[in-house]
Design goal:
Shape: elongated
Number of strands: 5
Order of helices and strands: EEEHEHEHHHHH
Structural class: alpha/beta
Helix content: 40-55%
Strand content: 5-15%
Number of helices: 7
Largest sheet: 5 strands, mixed
Length: 219
Amino acid sequence: MRTIGIDVSKATLDAALQDEQGNVVKEERVKNSTSGLRTLLRKWTRQGLCDTRALVCLEPTGHYSHGVVKTLVVMRYPTWLAHATDIRLSIGMQRGKSDTVDAPRIAQYAHRFRDKARLVGQAHLAFAELKALLALRERLVKERAKDKAQLSDNVLHLTGSAKELMKAELQRQAQGPGAVDRPSSTRPSPPSCGRTVPCSARTSWPKVYRASGRCWSAN
């Protein structure tokens, strides 16, 4: 079985392909994107270097590797998320640390321990997305609690219109995350001098004042 080691970073993917004897036959760097990975694997397939039976191994790096795993699962490549510590311990003391060096090491690890591979699939992707959503919700709830506490402290020391604004924001947040500001059903009518204004002169008025058809001014 041929193995592919992928070292994932924020912007790029370093991939190394090993043959059945454990020799590196190809190394390339592509952009960390769905199109970049698809193009690379399809090119290697056309060149006869690998097919969908090749075991792909990479380290889990959070949301940077999530898109890589999703692409591999959709393309039906057997995909193994190996822990970085296990890879380091299996190889032993090594000199040098770079993405181009790590990719062959990951491929070598997959080749040596392919019988212990734990493959991931659609269930893993669904769980990872749910986990990310729960983490986001927890972070937003904490931020909201901090904001409410800060606003409550500010209300104690502010006066006038600033205090009223703080109170209004606290009441809005107390209604829950789904609460939105709705426009009032009744609007105050603009001051009017009583003169009727032609329609051609109303075009520059705000929409709320156009229907009245009367001149308004601060005088």
